[in-house]
Structures are given as structure tokens and as C-alpha cells.
Design goal:
By secondary structure, this protein is an alpha+beta fold. It contains 3 helices and 4 strands, in the order βαββαβα.
Length: about 90
């Protein structure tokens, strides 16, 4: 199992577009992928779940990945966050 904390650096936090891209990317993997914040844990394959955690700028989320392709899945989620925030010029 992989578990790591990630600080949200985008001024807009994880809004609709990043939530959709995260869920889409997470859905490509067999591993279980969860994101937690402030005691709430959600399935990262759910757009609505990602939106519910309300990860604003400066907040810290915990990414937890477990399964046969966990290394690749964790790297993919990190890359989606980096890509989105670089494109928005806020990473």
C-alpha cells in the first residue's frame, strides 16, 4: 500500500475540472485509490466524492493506493495534479 500527503497548491483548489480528470485517471487502474481530508475518505474514482472533500488551496490531502498496479496508479494521480496546476499557472 502507498500512502502520501499532498498539499494542494492551486488557488482554486480541486474544482470540477481537476476532479473529473482525477476520477478519469484513477478509473484506469485496478488498484483501490482513496483520497482523504479532515477525516473524510472518498473513492478517487468518483467525481462527486472528490468534489465533496472540498480540497481548497493550502489544504493537505492523503492519497492511499492499494492493489496490483499501485505504484503506477499513485504516480498517475500525482501527475494529473501537477499537469493541471502547471497548465493553470498556479503550481
Amino acid at each position: 500500500m502507498i500512502s502520501e500527503d499532498i498539499k494542494i497548491k492551486n488557488k482554486l483548489g480541486i474544482h470540477a475540472r481537476p476532479a473529473a480528470l482525477l476520477a478519469q485517471e484513477a478509473g484506469k487502474f485496478k488498484s483501490d485509490i482513496f483520497i482523504s481530508k479532515d477525516g473524510m475518505e472518498i473513492n478517487a474514482k468518483s467525481i462527486m466524492g472528490i468534489m465533496m472533500i472540498a480540497a481548497e488551496c493550502g489544504s493537505v490531502i492523503t492519497l492511499r493506493v492499494s492493489g496490483p498496479d499501485e505504484k503506477e496508479a499513485a504516480e498517475a494521480v500525482r501527475n494529473v495534479l501537477k499537469k493541471i496546476y502547471k497548465e493553470e499557472g498556479r503550481y
